[in-house]
Amino acid sequence: MHHTPVLVVGGSLVGLSTSLFLSTRGVAHVLVEKHPGSSPHPRAMGFTERTLELYRAAGIGERIPQAPPGSRLRRVKAQSLAGHWSEPLPWTPGKPEPPASAYSPCRGAAIAQDRLEPILRQAAIERGADLRYGQRLLGWREVEDGIVATIGDRAGGGAHELHATYLLACDGAASPVREQAGIARHGVGYLRTLRSVLFHCPGADAWLERGVQQFQIDNPRVQGFLTTYGDGRWVLMFDDDRPRGEAELDDAIRAALGMDLPFDRMTTGRWEMAGRIADAYSRGRVFLLGDAAHQLPPTRGGFGANTGIDDAGNLAWKLQLVLQGVSHPSLLDSYGSERQPIAWLRHQQTFARPDYARWLESPLETTLYGDAAMELGQLQRSHIVLGAGAELPPAAAPEVWAGQPGTRAPHAWITRQGARISTIDLSTRHFTLLSQAPEWIAAGREMAGRLGLPLDTVHVGVDVRFDHPDAFNAAYGVTARGVSLVRPDGVVAWRRPDDAPERNACLADAFRRVACLHG
């Protein structure tokens, strides 16, 4: 029987992101996907600043075209594309705020999923990933030292068994892995099934010059949602599950366009609008990621696919340290503790907003958080985050947090060896200790060496320079004598705002707790 440390089931967007992040960290794994390649339907479209930061950390940021500066995804109610438009409808009703890109070195990416997946696939292969398309998981069982999976060839070949230390389920909302694990889901549940038609109409792209990409169409001939993939492809989503013949589909497209433009119908789709969050994100050695863990509809906030990509970024470094023997397996318990509340927050935010609240019998009552808070200011709590108390809100604008443990480390432009980089670039491989005080840097190196923790140190003012003398203190919430410890996924794990009388003991305790070190 062959062995792999990690078996990834599902080779779509989240599975490929998981494979990329694992292979970037040198974690050997096998990915199986029952289909021969990507879906012919473009599916997800908008990818957020946080997602682009994760891809940047994996070394492929430059391969993904980012949105123009200052661009935002805007939606209007419209009689048709060529007809009357309303004023843009806000995603988060209330006071406008700066775009999330004001807090990040990255901008979002308006790239269709079927264009992004080949980029991820190629990058994972370059890093040594073992991707097996056309193979499917037939079943699995847990044994004392891992998982034994039965893999079959979709083309009708024989089946074989594969032993894995951990099984990662990236197999979608219907997840057979989750079902076999007996993990239930809760949320608003099933709301309705919708149909769509994908068509190619480059002539319609001229209407995008006004800065609107989404259109809630309402006229006597068609009611639905029209949007673009930015490459001549458009999709019209109907508000019902009624089958339509070719002639009726063509008439609906013309009515949505409001003009006689040439188009080619490409394919039709059918999807379920629902909100469901798994009751647990792991069971034994099985972990759920993406839609297997949280089923959310497409949103202007990117709460669906982007949440799954962030799941992968959270879990990959933890698996690396556990499999290397640096950390105790209890480190992996933090995955569900951190990610499930994020999914619930995004579930509540989705169905409390006007886009989806209209489909509920009773509206959800919750505080609405802006784009920057939801994308770059969410708080993750677990036993490996030191100082993220229950009294803190689940999200806030990045500048409000100022380096709060459990939140993404703040972005600021800095200079390192003459090059202009972001502070985000400092914490992509190992735990990173940042301080202006040389005593903390020396103590960090000494204690990390004793405990066997891979650690990068950044002596602020020597190794890197901020644009303003007090910028580090303000951004990270520490004094010139303080210290901040950032995880390999860019989340602040711990900080000491000022000096400590016993630096070595203080750091040893923090290192052991945030990385679940042995001993």
TrEMBL record:
<dbReference type="InterPro" id="IPR002938">
    <property type="entry name" value="FAD-bd"/>
</dbReference>
<dbReference type="GO" id="GO:0071949">
    <property type="term" value="F:FAD binding"/>
</dbReference>
<feature type="domain" description="FAD-binding">
    <location>
        <begin position="4"/>
        <end position="346"/>
    </location>
</feature>
<keyword id="KW-0560">Oxidoreductase</keyword>
<protein>
    <submittedName>
        <fullName>2,4-dichlorophenol 6-monooxygenase</fullName>
    </submittedName>
</protein>
<keyword id="KW-0503">Monooxygenase</keyword>
<keyword id="KW-0274">FAD</keyword>
<dbReference type="InterPro" id="IPR036188">
    <property type="entry name" value="FAD/NAD-bd_sf"/>
</dbReference>
<dbReference type="InterPro" id="IPR050641">
    <property type="entry name" value="RIFMO-like"/>
</dbReference>
<dbReference type="GO" id="GO:0016709">
    <property type="term" value="F:oxidoreductase activity, acting on paired donors, with incorporation or reduction of molecular oxygen, NAD(P)H as one donor, and incorporation of one atom of oxygen"/>
</dbReference>
<keyword id="KW-0285">Flavoprotein</keyword>
<dbReference type="Pfam" id="PF21274">
    <property type="entry name" value="Rng_hyd_C"/>
</dbReference>
<dbReference type="Pfam" id="PF01494">
    <property type="entry name" value="FAD_binding_3"/>
</dbReference>
